Amino acid sequence: MKINLNAPINKTSYGYVSFNILKQLVKQGHDVALFPIGPLEIDKQEDAIIIKECIEKSKTTFDSNSPCLRIYHQNKMAESIGNGKRYGMPIFELDTFTDEERHHLSSLDHIIVNSQWAKTVIEEDFEEAGQDDARRQIPISVAPLGVDNQVFNYKPQLQKPTVFLNTAKWEIRKAHDIIIKAFNTAFTQDDDVELWMCNHNLFIDFTQQGGEDKNKEWEQYYTGSALGSKVRLIPRQQTHEDIAKLMNMADCGVFPSRAEGFNLPALEMMACGKDVIATNYSAHTEFCTDDNSLLIDIDDVEPAYDGVWFHGQGNWAVFGDKQFEQLVEHMQFIHRSKPSGALHTNEPGMETAQQFSWENSVGKIVEILEG
Fold first, then answer.
1. Is residue 157 one of the residues assigned to a domain?
2. What is the pTM of this model?
3. How far is CA 5 from CA 44, 67, 85, 157, 232, in A?
4. Are 261 and 333 within one domain?
5. 124-176 pLDDT, tens per residue?
6. Are residues 186 and 109 both part of a single domain?
């Protein structure tokens, strides 16, 4: 199948998703012309070869009547390549769209989202906003993202402390204001536990919040806490192989997010056979279940506001006392289970990760494009 792919290829989340989809499309034998959004960031020579070949096709051999798949923000969906059907794949965290976002989504021929939660959000938002019948008739299909099980897989590790790991850029949305408080409440200096945080936020530099100093502020918030001596700040990892090694050295991924667009790190932790703590809300409910995760019940939502990225334009989960107590209990359960020998490999999580592969993800995308 000929496909015009319009997407970023860089070290952002969008770039990571786009490249994995591109690589799998090529692997499955599809003819992809790549029209990259923004500058390229490539680490591996073998990746550069794939990207170069696909970009060359965008110059002289692309089919202008082939479908265009644009993977990008929901307020940047108007642009497209050629005259073929326009498919947009936005990844979003909140339950409400701005007029700009809604208008851009409405311009597409077909919307592809990564979870049933996201599909429901669009359907309900369009209906509540009074969109006309034609716009509400836009097909919306679900194609979940995937995990590279060749990179993220179980490797036995020997270590004494119980290690909790979070890998996500510093954000209130990711509950980074909560995780350290829960860690300090759950444990004492006598407990053999550690909290590993791999969270450098490259995008803070583009805000008015102090750039690099804001990263330092988050770091000091953790190291200056009661159990700061048990906190390990880990630099941004350069490759996903490095992240996989880090995940295999941990016991549990802790992701009590207020909202997620998909939460790939949680799925990658499962692929490594690790336990996962997550909120029972938003896009990661596509794969986080009672069988493979320790879930935190969410009872309500509130306007999403952090003064940096979110300014009340939609809602995210309320993280109150009940949720805090559940997070503390889950962390204590993990630590109690390790020395007793009850902390086993997360087999249900590994089975889930096998189902949510990039191969399956791209298979679903192609099915949608061919339909």
1. no
2. 0.94
3. 21, 9, 12, 40, 39
4. yes
5. 999 887 755 555 689 999 999 999 999 999 988 767 899 999 999 999 999 99
6. no
